[in-house]
Specification:
The structure is a homodimer. Chain A has two domains: about 70 residues, Orthogonal Bundle (Arc Repressor Mutant, subunit A); about 110 residues, NAD(P)-binding Rossmann-like Domain (Rossmann fold, 3-Layer(aba) Sandwich), CATH 3.40.50. Helix content of chain A is about 40%, strand content about 20%. By secondary structure, chain A is an alpha/beta fold. The termini of chain A are far apart. Chain A binds a DNA duplex through helix 3 and strand 2.
DNA sequence: AACTGTGAAATTATTCACAGCT
DNA sequence: AGCTGTGAATAATTTCACAGTT
């Protein structure tokens, strides 16, 4: 079956809903959809792409569905992540408290600024970019976050891929060219603000600020 | 005509492509699509939602299209933005250099941590959250970035809305409940990493890290 | 000749609606 | 009786393909 790509982040949302549902044994697609902000049919359909997890007339067993979703999403394990670019954003992500509870650990960080190399940030030593390949191969890391400038992003990504990385979260405002087998997700902060600007511009009384 | 929401960030991409196209007067949908990473038909269709900007046999006049896109997206002006939550991520966004060139300026910042209030970060004084309404009304600010924890996001958003904000970029990992007239865009870092984990888990040799 | 603008076709995603299980 | 799982229907989005314009 063909699984819509947009279903995956929704599964994450559902998983999050379950975390708050300790009060009862079972939860219905209706209840999940209510909190996740979509339709019940969507919840059932998304889950159905991956199997049959529910019990007719009861709903989904919370703990069981939690485990199933973890397995589907690959969050039933720890993921070590590399970070490249220890600027403001990179440093902030190094100290971001939201990753650990979800099983993500930034295990190493790289930069080519001599003033940053060697520093210990949140228990992670910043290394020279030239050490990337050796380090990532040694650690077997396949997931990376890119927070370098637009100008160096493509070359950094090329290095990451040579180092064995196949999944990249990119904050640099450029379209990265990668082979089909590599997954790149982009978070482009200015584009998000421009989307907001678009909506604001379309509201009636668009006066100032 | 009904404009697909996903067309808007694509327009931002096109606008960005144009910035690098100083070398020639005209650019074709083919060239734009090449760099933006989509099809030429998509480019033409997206633009056609908003008018006729091209010249048959020539393409689009770069400078003119740039202006048209700015007007569509609302980036033909400056936008003042409020930031709530001056933690690691919030501070990083305060110093993020990518906003200014696109016309976005974080004009004020709020937190309820006494150790942060009064601080001057990147020329912005951190204020107590209780001053939000007065400040935002006075400045006429309608766009905000939320980088508080999951627990306080909804109440912060309620305050923002009462203060006149109608467009919100939310980094807190919660589904926010807002009236229809309010635009909320979510950036959920853990969900993005989970998407990556999903793709990684699906590749053959999923051994370690 | 070259490229846009755009209906029509194809594809993808969502919602409906109900049979079937508990 | 209540809720899932799922084909079928609908809606949304993308791609095709070509008439029309310069």
């Amino acid at each position: 079956m063909k699984i819509p790509l947009v279903a995956i982040p929704r599964l994450s949302q559902y998983a999050r809903v379950l975390l708050e549902s300790r009060h009862s044994d079972y939860i219905s697609s209706d209840e999940i959809s209510e909190i996740a902000g979509c339709t019940a049919a969507q919840v059932r359909k998304d889950l159905a792409y991956f199997g049959q997890f529910g019990t007719p007339s009861r709903g989904y067993k919370v703990e069981e569905l939690k485990r199933s979703l973890s397995k589907i999403l690959g969050t039933d394990r720890e993921w070590n992540v590399a970070l490249v670019g220890v600027g403001n954003l990179g440093s902030a992500l190094l100290s971001y408290k939201g990753f650990a509870p979800n099983g993500f650990k930034i295990k190493c960080a790289f930069d080519n600024d001599l003033r940053k190399i060697g520093k210990n940030l949140e228990g992670v030593i910043v290394r020279d970019t030239s050490e990337m390949k050796r380090t990532l191969k040694a650690e077997g890391i396949r997931m990376a976050i890119v927070t370098v400038g637009a100008g160096s992003a493509q070359s950094v990504v090329n290095m990451l891929i040579k180092s064995g990385v196949t999944a990249i979260l990119n904050f640099a405002p450029v379209k990265l060219n990668v082979a089909r087998a590599i997954t790149v997700l982009n978070i482009d902060l200015s584009i998000e603000l421009e989307r907001l600007a678009y909506f604001l511009s379309r509201t009636k009384k668009s006066k100032k600020s």
